[in-house]
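Reviewers of the previous submission asked for a worked example of the structure-prediction workflow described in the proposal, so we include one complete record here. The input consisted solely of the amino acid sequence. No template or homolog information was supplied to the procedure at any stage.
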Amino acid sequence: MVIADAEADPALIAADLLSQAEHDTDAQVILAVTDARLLDAVATALEAQLATLPRAAIARAAMDQARLILARSAEEAAAIANAYAPEHLALHVGDTAPLIAAIDNAGAIFVGRWSAETFGDYVCGPSHVLPTDGAARAWSGVSTGSFMRSFTVQTLSEAGARALAPAAARLARLEGLEAHARAADLRAI
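From that input alone, the workflow returned the following structure tokens.
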């Protein structure tokens, strides 16, 4: 997915959209713009670039299913992105900071005209393994953290245990786990 405003370069947007479209005929391609004139300029750039693309037939089939959306504002474009939860989200906008802050669901965000998704896939991370089909609503991409284990360490004081015991025991009993409740109760005495 690409979000763009009136300051964006149509040729770069088209290149980013086609880099997704050339994967296969079912590739999902979405553009949300806040400037109606940009839609026409991107369409022209897409045709020009498709004319020389080796995988043009594949990309064109994917683009036939693409969604080119005119958003009323950057906030609406961010809401569309959050609902869609794209694997890749390229931001071709002048003021990126508020838009980044508004994004909750994306596998990776590529900020500004120079940050092509291609770089993220091949040379500067995060990795080529990112959540697809809306999975970015719940999952992150593969990173070094994916290969590390973590655990929590909890240390309560006597006063802390006494304060927490009634709530813990009540929740345990609601789940039907009496031994859990009694282990908490014994620390409230």
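Helices lie at 10-21, 36-50, 56-64, 74-84, 96-102, 117-122, 158-174, 178-185. We consider this example representative of the routine output the project will generate in years two and three.
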